[in-house]
Specification:
- The structure is a single chain.
- With 565 residues, this protein is an alpha+beta fold.
- It is built from 22 helices and 23 strands.
- Among the domains are: 152 residues, Methyltransferase, Cobalt-precorrin-4 Transmethylase, Domain 2, CATH 3.30.950; 71 residues, no CATH class; 74 residues, Orthogonal Bundle (Arc Repressor Mutant, subunit A).
- The chain is 39% helix and 18% strand.
- The radius of gyration is 32 Å and the shape is flat.
C-alpha cells in the first residue's frame, strides 16, 4: 500500500459516522496488554461483520474524527518483561490472524495503524482470553455466547478436511468391523444392506469418508495407531491418569485412535467400586456402582467430539478415589449447561460437525446434544450427585463425575421423591454441594417444602429430614431459634458473670448451625450480645477490646463506660 493509499484508508475510516465494531480510534497510545486485547476483539468483530480487516488507529480523536497526531512508537514500546512489543503481541494471539503496523504521515499529523486479519475457523484469543467489541466497547467474548457460536459457524470444519496421505489402509480393520456392528445397532432396518456394502461404500454411508476419501474424522475414529502421525500437528490422544486422594499420580495410560473403542479401553482402567445406600423404610442396604458406564462413555465421547485438535492438546481423564475428571481443549459452545438441558434440543453447532455426525451414525453419542441431558437424568435415577461442568477457564471444558454419596439425605430424598422434575433436582444438587442458587430458585424450593434456612445458607427441609431419618443432623445444621441463644447468654452471665467473650463463645458456638462458617458464628454471637446490651439485659464492665459481661440487675449500674463488643 502506497503512502497515498494509506492516507486514503485513514480518510475513509474518518468519514464513517462513528466507530464500528471492527475499527477503533485512539487519540494517543495504550499499554501493551490493552493493545493485545483490542487486536483480539477487532479480529473477532471483523469476522462477525464480514470485514477483510480490523483497524486500531492511533492519532485520531474518537469523538470528532479529527487528526490529532501521535508520538506513539510501536517499535520502541516495550511489553511485559521488557520484551519487544510486536513479537510479544504475535505470540499472544492464538490463532494469530496476522497483523500489520503502518506509520502513516497524514497531511494533518502522524498516525499509527494496526491492521489485523479477521478470525478464521475459531475465535482469536490473547494470552488465553478472547475478546469482542459490542458497539464501541471491548468485552470478553465468553460474556456473549451467541457471538461465540457465530464465530465457530463461520469457520471451516477441521474434522471434515481430507487427511493428506491417508488411504483405506490407514484404517484399522477391526475398528471398521466394529463400526459396521454399531451402525447396524443405530440403523437396524439396514442390516441386510450393510452386509453387502464394501468398506468404502459403508464408510461413505456412515459419514466417515467424504466422497470415498479419508477425512481427519476417519483417522480419529477408525485409524490405526500409527496413522495418527498423518494428522500432525494436530494431536489425537486420550490420557487416563490414576491419582490418590493427595493428588499423587499412581498410574497412567495413553489411548490413541481408533477412538471408536476408546470408551471400552477407558472402562478397563477405571475402578468402579460398589457404594452402599440405605433406602428409607428398609434395613437392607442397596449397592450401587460408583459410576454408570454409559455416563463415563458419554462424557468421554462428548470430549472427543468437542476437542479442538488444532490446539495440540489431549483429552485427559483423571481418576481419583471418589471422582472422575474429564477435560478437553475448546470452549463449551452452547454457553452453559443449563441452556442445553432447558432447551432439550440438539445443539445448534458443534466444533467438529463432521466428526459429530459420524459419531452419531456409529452410535457413539446421542443425537447431537441430547446426551448431556441424559447424563443428568441417569445420575438422578441413580440418586447420585449430578455432573459438575466447570467452564471458568477460557478454552477449556472440565466435567466431574462424583463417585460417592455427598449427602445421604439428598440420595434418600431422590429415592423417595420420584416426582421431582430435573430442574428441582439440579437445584437440590447445588444445595447439597454447598453451592449458591438464585433467590428466585430458593423461593421455588422453599415453596415446594424442599429447603429451609435463611438465604443463602440453605439446608434440607425438616419434613424431608424426618422422612429420611436425618432429623438429628437437620437440627445441627439448622441450629436453634434466636430466643434460645439469648436465654443461654443470660443464664451464663447470671450464673458466672462477669464473663469474658471467650466464655460466651465456648457456650454458644458449638450450638450454632453447622452450616455457618467460623466467622459467621462469631458475628452472630456479637450481634446477640449487642441485642441484650441494647435491651438493658447485660452490661460490659470491661473495655471494647476485652469485654466482661454481667447481668445489669446484678450490677445496679448503667452502661457507664459505654463499652460494647
Amino acid at each position: 500500500m502506497s503512502s497515498s493509499e494509506e492516507v486514503a484508508l485513514i480518510d475513509r475510516l474518518r468519514a464513517l459516522p462513528s466507530e464500528t465494531e471492527w475499527f477503533e480510534f485512539k487519540r494517543s497510545g495504550c499499554e501493551a496488554q490493552l493493545l493485545g486485547e483490542y487486536l483480539s476483539a477487532l479480529a473477532n468483530s471483523a469476522c462477525l461483520a464480514n470485514q477483510p480487516r480490523g483497524y486500531l488507529v492511533f492519532g485520531i480523536d474518537d469523538e470528532t474524527h479529527d487528526v490529532a497526531g501521535t508520538r506513539f512508537d510501536p517499535y520502541r514500546v516495550k511489553a511485559k518483561g521488557n520484551q519487544d512489543l510486536l513479537p510479544w503481541l504475535g505470540a499472544g494471539l492464538e490463532p494469530n490472524p496476522g497483523f500489520n503496523v503502518r506509520v502513516v504521515e497524514h497531511p494533518e499529523g502522524r498516525i499509527v495503524v494496526f491492521e489485523v486479519g479477521p478470525a478464521k475457523d475459531q475465535p482469536v484469543s490473547f494470552y488465553g482470553t478472547a475478546y469482542v467489541r459490542v458497539g464501541t466497547s471491548k468485552t470478553e467474548l465468553r460474556n456473549h455466547p451467541e457471538k461465540t457460536r457465530a464465530l465457530w459457524t463461520r469457520g471451516s470444519d477441521w474434522s471434515a478436511e481430507l487427511c493428506e496421505g491417508a488411504t483405506l489402509d490407514s484404517l484399522d480393520p477391526e475398528a471398521v468391523a466394529k463400526a459396521r456392528q454399531e451402525f447396524t445397532v443405530k440403523h437396524p432396518t439396514q442390516a441386510d444392506a450393510v452386509a453387502g456394502w464394501d468398506d468404502r461404500t459403508f464408510l461413505n454411508k456412515a459419514r466417515v469418508l467424504k466422497a470415498g476419501a479419508v477425512t481427519n474424522a476417519a483417522i480419529l475414529l477408525l485409524g490405526r495407531g500409527e496413522s495418527t502421525t498423518l494428522l500432525s500437528p494436530a494431536v489425537a490422544r486420550v490420557s487416563w491418569i490414576l491419582k490418590d486422594a493427595g493428588n499423587r499420580e499412581l498410574d497412567h495410560e495413553h489411548i490413541d485412535p481408533p477412538f471408536l473403542v476408546a470408551g471400552d479401553r477407558l472402562l478397563k482402567h477405571v475402578r468402579n467400586l460398589m457404594v452402599r445406600v440405605l433406602p428409607r423404610g428398609t434395613l437392607f442396604p442397596q449397592e450401587i456402582t460408583q459410576y454408570d458406564p454409559w455416563v463415563i462413555r458419554e462424557a468421554l465421547h462428548n470430549s472427543i467430539a468437542h476437542q479442538d485438535y488444532r490446539r495440540q492438546g489431549r483429552v485427559v481423564v483423571v481418576e481419583f478415589p471418589d471422582r472422575v475428571l474429564v477435560t478437553n481443549a475448546g470452549d463449551f459452545l452452547p454457553g452453559d449447561v443449563e441452556t442445553v438441558i432447558r432447551q432439550d434440543a440438539p445443539l445448534a453447532i458443534y466444533r467438529n460437525p463432521f466428526l459429530a455426525a459420524a459419531m452419531v451414525e456409529l452410535n457413539l453419542i446421542e443425537t447431537q446434544g441430547g446426551g448431556i441431558k441424559r447424563m443428568f437424568e441417569t445420575q438422578r435415577r441413580r440418586s447420585f450427585p449430578l455432573p459438575d461442568y466447570d467452564l471458568t477457564k477460557p478454552g477449556h471444558v472440565a466435567v466431574t463425575l462424583t463417585g460417592r454419596i455427598l449427602d445421604e439425605r439428598y440420595t434418600q430424598l431422590l429415592m423417595a421423591r420420584t416426582d421431582l422434575d430435573l430442574g428441582q433436582v439440579m437445584l437440590l444438587d447445588r444445595v447439597q454441594k454447598g453451592l449458591s442458587i438464585a433467590r428466585e430458585d430458593h423461593r421455588r424450593l422453599k415453596a415446594a417444602g424442599l429447603v429451609e434456612g435463611r438465604y443463602p445458607n440453605l439446608i434440607v427441609a425438616a419434613a424431608i429430614a424426618r422422612a429420611t431419618g436425618e432429623a438429628g443432623r437437620h437440627i445441627r445444621e439448622r441450629g436453634f431459634d434466636r430466643q434460645y441463644y439469648l436465654d443461654l447468654i443470660l443464664a451464663l452471665v447470671r450464673t458466672h458473670g462477669p464473663v469474658e467473650r471467650k466464655d460466651v463463645d465456648q457456650a454458644l458456638v458449638p450450638k450454632l448451625s453447622d452450616r455457618l462458617t467460623e466467622g459467621q458464628k462469631r458475628r452472630k454471637v456479637r450481634n446477640l450480645l449487642q441485642e441484650l446490651r441494647r435491651g438493658g439485659k447485660i452490661v460490659n464492665l470491661g473495655s471494647r477490646s476485652q469485654p466482661r459481661w454481667a447481668a445489669r440487675e446484678e450490677t445496679g449500674e448503667g452502661d457507664a463506660g459505654g463499652h460494647h463488643d
